[in-house]
Specification:
The complex is a heterodimer. By secondary structure, chain A is α+β, with helices and mostly antiparallel strands. Chain A is about 20% helix and about 35% strand. Chain A has 12 helices and 24 strands. In chain A, strands 8, 15, 16, 17, 18, 19, 20, 21 and 24 form a 9-stranded mixed β-sheet that branches. In chain A, strands 1, 2, 3, 4, 5, 6 and 7 form a 7-stranded mixed β-sheet that branches. In chain A, a hairpin with a 2-residue loop joins strand 1 and strand 2. Helices cover about 25% and strands about 40% of the residues of chain B. Chain B is built from 10 helices and 17 strands. In chain B, helix 1 crosses helix 2. The radius of gyration of chain B is 24 Å and the shape is globular. The chains are: A alpha+beta, B alpha+beta. At the A-B interface, strand 2, strand 3, helix 4, helix 5 and strand 7 of A face strand 1, strand 2, strand 3, helix 2 and helix 4 of B.
Chain lengths: ~525, ~450
């Protein structure tokens, strides 16, 4: 049933405040659906928190559904459907946070959880040195959902299996021993957020993750080639535009070429990175370093800190002048795209690196004041009802150049380089300086032409050296998104879905390693 | 509140009944966990977030001949469980046949591992957690070091049941407490940690003291060039390598020719290296059954440098005419015959590594692993610690590292998780491939 914002405000005792803010009357948000139980759940949390003197409280009713369908060689390898549902309550009392959750979406249970959260805040408050303060944000009442044509959960599992088995068959058309794996992961995240500030936000986010890979074995040697495509926030229609099916033959052929390819000669080379490779490098070398909580030490006990500390804002030459890297929680198809974050802040776009200069951070309401900003950037996220919201990465992307350059142009302009396709192994240090990546396919480039495939390639660099060595950026025509379904951060660790867009891009004289060299990579 | 033993058993039986009513001949497997999880996190010497959640996890697998599907949920009321079973049956009916599907397991006797549970963890509340955190915050505040840390507890029941008569319910608890200290100069960092199934032995102040001491000792590192070095790995670092090695030890991958272990026999590692998993080992208190409910026994993986077991699924065991192997929660890398000081004393020039970070496979054929050193890296000269040095990225074959191991410490430590212990170890020609400026 659909209830009005007036009903919501009345039941939580917020009517007067909302009227003062000039936002009385029926909800204007289209389609806001709140049934009576959910309304009572929200009321139980917020009224209990307010009665106990909490300075702030929010409640999230959160449902996650995940369907995974996979095949191995010529048969299914598992069909699973999982669901998590519950309520998380966060209170700010005596200057400290308290959080509790329950999987029973019931007002009495939520009231108990809220009391538990209040007790936790009270117990922890003496261990704070500074009270937590939240940057102000408008109290939004709205609905947001993934634009999609076909709900992937409504596509029969049998159809999905048939599609995957067909791809798997294509991958295994080889003259040597071949193994294949293919999968489709459909994920739905639905959440209803309400806060003592008066926010009431319903969001429904659908994500689709297709993937496959083939492994060839010959004479004690083996190689693997995975599909370059990426997960997307989208409906089933994404598969039609992603070349998921069409690419299978090329991937099978690539694997043969890779198995026969010569090993790379290590040394400094120009790298042309495809979007399906560079996205991961952006993620590690730009996405994580510009998380403010990390820069100030909140992640020191787990993922580390960051070289990009606040005194370097607007000073540090992070990248070459042609490079602009931006955060954007509104990128169409981006896994981190949504209408509002888990603080109830409306999402947007802003620069992290502007014309090579370090200019911005990712923040939440709690963090904005740490660097003198008046408003949050809207980066709060909790993976499920049982997790504490904290700062998580938005989509972070490389802006395309104002040219029509494509990968063919970059190759034509390169004298001695390697063109890298797809993502592989990755690793970066705990302050985000030293990183090392591999890929899926590697092509030698000599005098403006691709000469042959190579294998056993890794590239290793330092974040600032790497980004300042960027000298050619493709135009918007070949700008594409890469994605991570489960980026880990925090303790307890939570996963965050996130995407990164970029065009093909060239980096000068990067250290290339041979991963099978006898003397070591 | 988490479910009681009685409630957990009843819930699993109810799921089996729902399935039986829909598909009397179906084979059904149920896994149900119910737990309370709590945590406190701190950084910059003050608490940041703190929470407590009740978590349930119900997984139902329905097998109709060779057709199968699995559904999971955190809802354990009767109506939700019934709906879950109905959904799973619908999915299973539509699934193509899977030739690798194995029948559910029947009744198996397991002995409860009392060492896996501690009522003190179950009783700990927000006030009790805050008191422990207060102890840990002391050293950092007193010495003007920035400390960050994490304290988490898990207390609950783990259940498995099947339509063939399997029924296990096992209580378990776990606690982890870790502290990272950083110097004001930003050039020193250290870590202390505790992992256990019991609170006994947890001394938060001592954990923090260790972190602070290493942070101070590692402050102001000197430049050391990349290269191949003799290295002494503290237990946290040796655990990373041992875990990676164990993860790669899979019989199917080896039989299919896509593994380092394909076609290999005889000693692959130093005769000092022995790796095993044993549910009854008091140092690695793990559950007596695996994820499918199969009773676990002691499993040697490497005995005096020779591979003595590769993880083998039930399907692959049937196909290859062997026995299922693996599914253990943890392991022990056996200690050696010298103390930690002696490990260092035997090094003319080398590097002492406290722990690794962000390890990831680079090349499966030679077990090439990459990663970084972190939280205390020191130069060893003439058998003594000569001072802190920069961190490194390593690119190292894990197989080579264990082949060239020439000494392990007598003591072992749970530096990885509550079910895993490793000693410090020394190995040679370890490739510290490039400098990391990170501290």
């Amino acid at each position: 049933m659909t209830l009005s914002r007036r009903h919501f405000l009345t039941s939580t005792g917020l009517t007067a405040a909302a009227v003062l803010a000039g936002r009385s009357g029926l909800v204007e948000a289209r389609g806001l659906v709140v049934d009576t139980v959910l309304l009572a759940v929200i009321d139980a949390a917020l009224s209990t928190a307010r009665a106990a003197g909490a300075a702030y409280a929010d409640v999230r009713v959160h449902r996650r559904r995940e369907e995974n369908v996979s095949v191995r060689d010529d048969h299914p390898a598992g069909t699973s459907d999982s669901e998590r549902y519950g309520v998380g309550v966060r209170v700010l009392k005596d200057g400290a946070w308290g959080f509790a959750s329950t999987s029973r979406v019931d007002p009495k249970e939520v009231q108990l959880a809220t009391r538990k959260a209040l007790a936790i805040a009270t117990a922890q408050a003496p261990l704070r040195q500074r009270p937590i303060e939240l940057a102000p944000t408008p109290a939004h009442v709205d609905v947001w959902q993934t634009p999609l044509e076909k709900d992937p959960f409504k596509i029969p599992v049998a159809d999905k299996l048939e599609l995957l088995l067909s791809i798997s068959q294509t991958l295994r058309k080889q003259k040597v021993t071949a193994f294949s794996e293919a999968s489709l992961s459909s994920r739905l995240e639905w959440k209803l957020f309400a806060s003592t500030d008066g926010a009431l936000i319903e969001q429904s986010i659908t994500r689709l993750g297709p993937s496959y890979a083939v492994t060839l074995v010959k004479d004690g040697d083996f190689v693997q080639r995975g599909w370059d495509g990426q997960a997307r926030q989208a409906g089933w229609e994404y598969l039609a535009t992603s070349r998921f099916v069409e690419d299978a033959e090329r991937v099978a052929e690539d694997a043969r070429e890779k198995l026969a390819a010569p090993s790379v000669e290590p040394g400094r080379k120009d790298l042309i990175l495809s979007p399906e490779n560079l996205w991961l490098t952006i993620h590690e070398s730009v996405g994580h370093p510009t998380e403010l909580d990390r820069a100030l030490g909140d992640e020191a006990n787990f993922a580390g800190t960051s070289f990009a500390t606040p005194e370097k804002l607007k000073v540090l030459q992070y990248a070459a002048p042609a490079v602009t890297l931006y955060a954007d929680k509104t990128t169409p198809g981006g896994l981190a795209t949504c209408g509002y974050d888990d603080d109830g802040v409306k999402t947007g776009r802003w620069n992290l690196v502007e014309q090579g200069r370090f200019v911005g951070y990712q923040t939440t309401r709690e963090q904005a004041g740490w660097i003198g900003e008046k408003a949050s950037r809207g980066c709060s996220y909790a993976q499920d009802h049982a997790s504490v919201p904290f700062q998580r990465m938005p989509n972070v992307s490389l802006a395309p150049s104002n040219t029509s350059l494509g990968v063919k142009d970059l190759i034509a302009a390169t004298d001695d380089g390697i063109y890298v396709l797809g993502d592989g192994s990755w690793s970066i240090d705990h302050q985000r300086y030293n990183f090392q990546f591999t890929g899926q396919m590697f092509y030698e480039v000599k005098k403006g032409k691709v000469t042959r495939a190579l294998r056993d390639v890794a590239y290793q660099s330092n974040t600032l050296e790497f980004w300042n060595a960027c000298d050619l950026i493709g135009g918007p025509g070949e700008w594409r998104l890469g994605s991570a379904f489960d980026d880990g951060k925090g303790e307890p660790m939570q996963s965050n879905p996130v995407s990164h867009g970029c065009p093909p891009t060239r980096f000068k004289k990067i250290n290339v390693l041979n991963t099978r060299a006898k003397k070591g990579a | 509140m988490p479910l009681s033993v009685k409630q957990l058993k009843e819930a699993m039986q109810q799921v089996l009944s729902f399935a039986r009513a829909l598909e009397p001949k179906a084979q059904v497997f149920v896994a149900l966990d119910s737990a309370n999880q709590a945590h406190v996190r701190f950084s910059r010497n003050e608490v940041t977030t703190s929470g407590e959640v009740d978590q349930g996890h119900l997984a139902v697998t329905v097998m109709l001949g060779q057709r199968a599907a699995t559904s999971t949920s955190n809802q354990t009321d009767a109506a939700s469980m019934k709906a879950l079973v109905e959904r799973t049956v619908r999915l299973a009916r539509l699934a193509p046949e899977d030739p690798e599907l194995m029948p559910v397991l029947g009744a198996e006797k397991v002995t409860t591992n009392d060492a896996a549970f501690d009522a003190a963890i179950e009783r700990l509340d927000a006030t009790g957690r805050a008191a422990l955190i207060r102890e840990a915050l002391g050293p950092g505040r007193e010495r003007q070091l920035a400390t960050a840390g994490f304290f988490a507890t898990w207390s609950g029941l783990i259940g498995k049941a099947s339509s063939a008569g399997l029924l296990h319910v096992h209580p378990a608890t776990a606690a982890q407490f870790s502290v990272t200290a950083r110097t004001a100069s930003g050039t020193g960092s250290g870590r202390g940690q505790f992992h256990g199934r019991r609170l006994t032995g947890l001394e938060p102040r001592a954990v923090a003291e260790r972190a602070c001491a290493t942070a101070k000792a590692s402050e102001g590192p000197r430049r050391l060039e990349p290269g191949r070095y003799t290295v002494v790995l503290e237990p946290a670092a040796s655990a990373s390598l041992a875990q990676a090695l164990l993860d790669s030890m899979d019989r199917r991958a080896a039989d299919e020719g896509r593994s380092f272990f394909a076609g290999k026999s005889g000693p692959l590692f130093s005769e000092l290296v022995s790796l095993s998993s044993d549910p009854r080992n008091p140092r690695t208190p793990m559950l007596p059954f695996d994820g499918e409910g199969r009773a676990l026994s002691a499993q040697p993986w490497i005995t005096k440098g020779v591979v003595s077991g590769l993880a083998t699924s039930r399907y692959w065991a049937k196909k290859s005419g062997t026995q299922p192997v693996g599914g253990h929660g943890g392991f022990e890398l056996a200690g050696g015959s010298v103390d930690r000081a002696a490990l260092i004393a035997g090094v003319k020039r080398g590097v002492l590594i406290s722990r690794f970070w962000y390890t990831n496979w680079v090349e499966a054929q030679n077990l090439l692993l990459t990663g970084l050193t972190r939280d205390g890296t020191f130069l060893i000269e003439n058998g003594e610690i000569a001072g802190p040095v920069n961190n490194f990225r390593f690119n190292q074959s894990v197989a080579d590292a264990f082949a060239k191991c020439d000494a392990l410490s007598t003591d072992v430590e749970a530096a990885h998780d509550a079910e895993t212990v490793t000693p410090a170890l020394r190995t040679h020609e370890f490739l510290l491939a490039s400098v990391s400026e990170a501290v």
